[in-house]
């Protein structure tokens, strides 16, 4: 069993989990500098230092410029 560490949803295969992570709202971060949303994994290499993956933006730091979508309640489409 593979479980999403963001929303605790369980999946039969690792592939299914991978696909889910692309769309998991709870795993997404929001940059308040540029307004972009992106996967958590795109914003960090080591799970410690976070920075906005947008090259034109210098937003960085979890809970400084970057927030979990789930925490701030950014409206989703
Ligand atoms: Zn999830
Ligand atoms: Zn940004």
TrEMBL record:
InterPro entries membership: HVO_2901-like
Source superkingdom: Archaea
NCBIfam families recorded: HVO_2901
Protein name: Transcription regulator/DNA-binding protein
């Amino acid at each position: 069993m593979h479980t999403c560490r963001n929303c605790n949803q369980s999946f039969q295969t690792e592939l299914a989990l991978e696909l889910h992570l692309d769309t998991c709202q709870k795993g997404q971060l929001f940059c308040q500098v540029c307004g972009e949303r992106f996967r958590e994994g795109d914003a960090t290499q080591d799970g410690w230092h976070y920075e906005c993956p947008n090259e034109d933006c210098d937003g960085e730091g979890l809970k400084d410029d970057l927030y979990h979508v789930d925490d701030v309640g950014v409206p989703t489409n």
